[in-house]
Fold these 4 entries.
Entry 1:
Amino acid sequence: MNQAELPVAFLRHFEDQPPVKLIGKLGDAAVLQCRAPEPHEAMSSACIVIFKNQDEQEIKAIELLMAQQPRRKFIVLFPNLSVPNLKWCLDHRVEQGYMAPPPAIDLVDIKCRLNPNYQPIGHQQRHTHEKLRQTLELIEQRFGTPLSLQQLAHEVSISDSRLCHLFNQYLGIKFSNYLLCRRLEAAPDLLRDDGLSVAAIAYRLNFSTPSHFCRSFKQHLGLTPTEYRQLKKSESHSKVYHQYLKCRQPEPRTLICESG
């Protein structure tokens, strides 16, 4: 496909200089114009957004752009990929979100989204963290029920190994640890209800036994459930739980959680 046949796409960034390397890498799929699109321009032309600081000013500018052009396809690159960022993508109907700079497999995916006629060489099947986003939504809805990596991978149409890789690559935590910590995150609120026994909470959160719940709580939050119930707080998190909180919550500079 020659240059004249390539679709036009827009690139809205917040750096002092255009991202020349990224433009070059995407040049075989679309002709990129380094500016925000205007409402009168063809809605078939996608817009790539690259956050720099991901601060309130940048977020408001992009949310305004999206509100003015709700039919345009937006592809967003974040300085860090977190659960709040993925949720923001869902809330704002973003076509897809990626981590910047995007790895090779995501570059191919972006090209395919910019240009439906793009034919990646030797790339048979593309799975991106859209699948991860779908999986996280399912966990949010059903973490108190029996869940397995195999079951969720099947539901979002991805292989077990690929989904496992996405958790490690984008969130820095194993699937099993993420699910465990999500259940533990819900435990403190339940422990504040004196009408619920520790055993009842354990089964409500789908731990196999109360002792398994107590061991996990102690390991990752530094106290037993009974001790936590008495003190109402915990100041000693495990490394695994700390990493879980890091991917569940945005960094101080990241305000998407509040703005979403």
Entry 2:
Amino acid sequence: MVFNKGHEVLNEDYEDPDKEGKEKRTILDSWVEVAPYINSLTLGDVAVVVVDREKFLAHVPSKKIDFGVKAGDPISKAGVVTRTALETGTPQIQVVEDTSRFGFPYVGKAIPVFDEKGKVIGAVFFGETTDQLVRLTHAAEELFGAVKEVGETAERVSQQAQTLSAIGSELLTSANESLKRVEETDKILSLLSNVASQTNLLGLNAAIEAARVGEAGRGFGVVADEIRKLSVNSSSSLKNVEAVLKGIKEASRKISEEVEALSQVAEEQASQMTNIAGVIQNLQALAESLANEAQNILKDN
């Protein structure tokens, strides 16, 4: 299959009727004719080389790749990919990581060209730049690394939030228990207040009885006065204790309310961090898939 001057597809046994005795064209001639158009038909930057078994037939440099050969140069100047395709009769591909020649890596592909009898008569080589794909691969790998790091951080924060939530729950339990204990002191204060009142009444009765018996009850009257003083002091002390306990109770209630609010916030944070961790895991899987796909494309090219 070859191209004539109008680039129409013709049988490879076609002979120009206007020129008797013209040598039969081969598929290599067709490759030479279409070589200048290949780069414009691809999305990448492709240099094209066409060779037979002895020499270069065509070299069309790309914007970035120029192998510095020309038609007629000996086949010894061909690269290993092209020579291997000629020798083995099989397609060859190689990623050239060495950037010393062009300043960037590139992919070399070569396919053998056969005549109608199946004999290798030459080869066609494509040299394609991969710098954009390499940059994409590196960007995908960096994205994967960054997302992985964020995911690990989010996981740690999530664990810390769950720990904080558990601590908040324990604090809330302790605060409620403390408030309950403080409230139980009301019963004790009530009992002590009743004792003080009864003591005061006892002292008053004793004083009345001492006054009734006169001189004989004088000593007993002194004791009665002391009992009343004790009652008064006890009542005063109980009022002070009651005021202190009231303050403690209010503080405990406030602490309980604040701890409960903190516990709710911590629980909500833990829940949100769990959701965020799940989203990041999905993003991490997507970034890893993108990095792997970029690597696979680079290998396939």
Entry 3:
Amino acid sequence: MKIGIMGTGAVGGFFGSLLKRSGHEVIFIARGKNLEKMQQEGLKVYKDNELIHVDGSFSNDVNDLKGSNLILFCVKSVDTLEAARQIAEACGPETHILTLQNGVSNEEILSSVFGPERVFSAATYVQAQTKGPGVIQQAGFYQLVFGTLHASGEDDSRRYAELFTKSDIPAKVSDHILQAKWKKYIWNITFNPLSAVTGASVGDILDSPELKKLAKGICEEGIEVAGKLGLSFPPSYSEDLIIRSERAKSHKTSMLQDLLNGKKLETDALTGFLIRKAEEREVSVPYTETIHSLLKFLERKA
């Protein structure tokens, strides 16, 4: 199968390397020094302590994605609309889009460009970070939980799940993908913004009584807004989330990595989105509003 990786950062590069290793034709779209390094030396992915060296097709031209059966959409949320329009010009109706992005707002944008019948969404669980241009380090547990946004895509969802599993990517199909995405989104808003503002890893947050209290407060605000949108979470969910996150203590969140690497932050797609939904449903989210203001300050300062 021909598979495109739109955005070869830590997430796209890691999953793309496994698909390439299993024999699929993979086109990696990247830019800047990252692209230059991969074109010269290939992509080096450390899966725990195992080195996967990918000699593949690395490009900054989305026209190279033409004829792809599936595109893993991995760009930052701030670039979603522009990147989607570029792909739409290059690829025909036979191409499916699977978003591996943070947040829960990208699906609406992608559906407006491609139509919901071509869009699939994944809750992406992976601890991966770029260690330099063309080098990715992954550690520990990883999994894709995904599903279709349209009933017509159910058979394709199962087919892609089988494809990923055979490529050493644990994958399962969810009949309620937006609920699954909100679970991941609530984890993201709990840890990503706070880690960026403080420079803390997940473990640093969990080990600090003050930061842990803030994280739980943001988490509970996210759960309350989700409930107003018709999604259901058990009463113990915030406490359970904190406990489950112990296994990711060494993880530097993607937002912290973006800040350290001078990249755009996904502030509006994470905290901004929650604040907008809270305002629509007349829910008070003071923790989220505070951390959002601090993130906007960091953006202006950068």
Entry 4:
Amino acid sequence: MSQGPSPGEERDEGVPYPFTIIGKDAESSTTRMKRDEHGIPVIYDAAMQDASPVQKPIEHTEPDAISVLSHELLSPLTLIKGYAATLLQLSDSITEEQSRQYLQGIQAATDRVIRLLENLRDISRFEIAAPNLVLQPTSLSDMLRKTAFEIQSQTTEHVIRLRLSNQLPKVNVDRLKMEQVLTNLLANAVKYSPKGGDIEVNLRQATSEHDVLGSLGEVPPLRYPCQIVSVVDSGIGIPEAELERIFERFYRVDNRLTRATSGAGLGLHICKIIVEAHGGRIWASNRNPEGCIFSFSIPVS
């Protein structure tokens, strides 16, 4: 039995091990140590290293979509395998705190797989029939506060600011599906904003086109009166020619942020289906000098 590098010694492209690796598997030619996206060293199987981001145009044909979906599943599954292998092989060498970090990594990667599979399930259902809505009178203000709190708790690099009009009437929505829309839009804003960028969430009521002109870009025809939710990020924006296409299934804008960020191009498509099932509209516009505004309307009964 051989002993690996001592704690702090660098190996594999400058990655320091925070602990001693002992055992034959540690020096196997089929395994290697890498850092995950949080900087935690993880044992990976070299046979699964092809799960790196796909560097190809983002506009997918159906075969391309299958390739992207395969990547989106392989990436978190590779992480889960790496975390589990690290825990199994190095259980005697790592601290309780390090074990907790690996377990948190397994949980986060599992959540990512579940979200993707849930999106695929929803897409397959919605292609057969329109969403079956269970409508209930709901305060969008309260729902936004709840969703923003949940997303804020997942990031320390962004600040979510709420600007909500007071005393708005309740609207009839399917609460679970509307929470899915809000979660998708806020999670996207976090994902595509630079570190430290602010995210602003607005809720207003509009009784006519005059109430929204000039503030939300080019607004599609809406049913009035309606309540409008807008999520404003501080990212690099979207090319004007692609503002309408981003709601298509599997479509992703091809820029440096999307190439470096995971995603299958399903979330916004699902948002569009749900919002339109409520009789609303969803659209995107760019904000000067930078950033993007995602807005959707819900008619007030």
